[in-house]
Write a structure and sequence with these properties.
Elements lengths: L3 E6 L7 H20 L3 E6 L1 H4 L6 H17 L7 E5 L5 H10 L4 H5 L2 H7 L8 H15 L5 E3 L5 H17 L9 E3 L34 H10 L18 H13 L4 H8 L4 H27 L2 H30 L6
Parallel strand pairs: 1-2, 2-3, 4-5
Helix pairs in contact: 3-12, 4-7, 4-13, 7-8, 9-12, 10-11, 10-12
The structure holds tryptophanyl-5'AMP.
């Protein structure tokens, strides 16, 4: 069966280094490899996921465009990959409802992201935040995804998608949904906050110093790395010796991911160095990687009408691609759509 890559990102705030190294860089690589092998890619802005917590409508609208521009600047090519926003393809919300009736409450109760995001006020969280992983399952099952490139934090949601697909196929005696495989990068599966090695780098962290944004300029990147939390010990010569040093592990991990190396490779060169030496070099590597993306992004931001046109064209393609699977799901359930 042909390779089909599907993945999404929430259009909230800036694209940051965690998104880039954990997911987007893999999207771009897979886009090239997949096209060469006769497969295809679907990448989308998960705006329906963004509204599971309150989002200012004007900001959300602007963020969809800004995130689309950031993805294109990072290398997503709308001529080769289908790039669109989820709300423009109603089949996502429709299939999510059908799958809500297959997913079990017990399965959703195990989702760690819901527990984190709802915090202590679980009763006050939206039903959407709770059912969020079912929409995510619909996102990938709708297109018959074979592979889903994501960071480590989405692994549990992907496992749920596989459970929902299996139960649906079994309950309704069909071979409809394909089971998607996650693709998680080894060195960059979980990029951590620059201020706290125990928390992942995230758009929702109130401190901008906790993350590198793809739009940060050279001086900002240098300052954020200089101020990044570390410890006074020099770098060790084995990866195991970084256990218990989460901030040090994170900076070495970022360096490794930037150069497509393992943590052990980086330590083989830099063991014995203190962070006074290591940090400026890391900042330089970051700037090298991010500067061209920032420059392309500034260019794209000048032409919002073109971005809208690209997203509209992507949505039209996605609607066509989604139609057969949605029809198959209605049919399997015995639901008539005759008008
Ligand atoms: P989101 O928008 O939080 O993140 C987008 C992608 O970036 C990865 N990521 C990270 N990787 C490594 N280190 C980090 N600190 C880090 N932070 C984020 C995420 O794992 C993700 O791959 N629910 C999803 C969006 C979504 C989706 C989907 C993804 C909706 N439907 C279907 C895949 C398939 C989310 O909120 O990602």
């Amino acid at each position: 069966m042909k390779t089909r890559i599907v993945s999404g990102i929430q259009p909230t705030g800036n694209l940051h280094l965690g998104n880039y190294l954990g997911a987007i860089r893999n999207w771009v690589r897979m886009q090239d490899e997949t096209a060469a092998a006769g497969g295809d890619c679907f990448f989308f802005l998960a705006d329906l996921h963004a509204i599971t917590v309150y989002n200012d409508p004007a900001e959300l609208r602007a963020n969809v465009r800004a995130m689309a521009a950031a993805l294109i600047a990072a290398g997503v090519d709308p001529a080769r990959a289908t790039l669109f926003n989820q709300a423009a393809v109603p089949a996502h919300a429709e299939l999510a409802w059908l799958l809500n009736c297959t997913a079990r409450i017990g399965w959703l109760n195990r989702m760690t992201q819901f527990k984190e995001k709802s915090g202590k006020n679980r009763e006050g969280a939206s039903i959407g935040l709770y059912a969020y992983p079912v929409l995510q399952a619909a996102d990938v099952l709708l297109y018959g995804a074979s592979h889903v490139p994501v960071g480590e934090d989405q692994k549990q949601h992907l496992e749920l998608a596989r459970d929902i697909a299996t139960k649906f196929n079994t309950d309704y005696h069909v071979d409809l949904f394909r089971l998607p495989e996650p693709i998680i990068p080894p060195a960059a599966a979980r990029i951590m906050s620059l201020r706290d090695g125990g928390a992942k780098m995230s758009k929702s962290d109130p401190s901008d110093a906790s993350r590198i944004n793809l739009t940060d300029d050279v001086d900002t990147i240098a300052a954020k790395i200089r101020k990044a939390k570390t410890d006074p010990e020099p770098l060790p010569d084995t990866a195991e010796a970084l256990d218990g040093r989460p901030e040090a592990r994170n900076l070495v991990g970022i360096h490794a991911a930037l150069g497509d190396e393992s943590v052990a490779d980086v330590l083989a060169r830099h063991a014995g160095q203190g962070f006074g030496q290591f940090k400026p070099m890391l900042a330089e590597r970051l700037v090298e990687t991010l500067r061209p993306i920032g420059a392309r992004l500034a260019e794209l931001a000048r032409d919002p009408a073109e971005l809208d046109r690209l997203l509209a064209a992507g949505a039209a393609r996605a609607r066509d691609a989604a139609a057969p699977m949605l029809a198959g799901a209605y049919d399997a359930l015995g639901l008539s759509r005759q008008q």
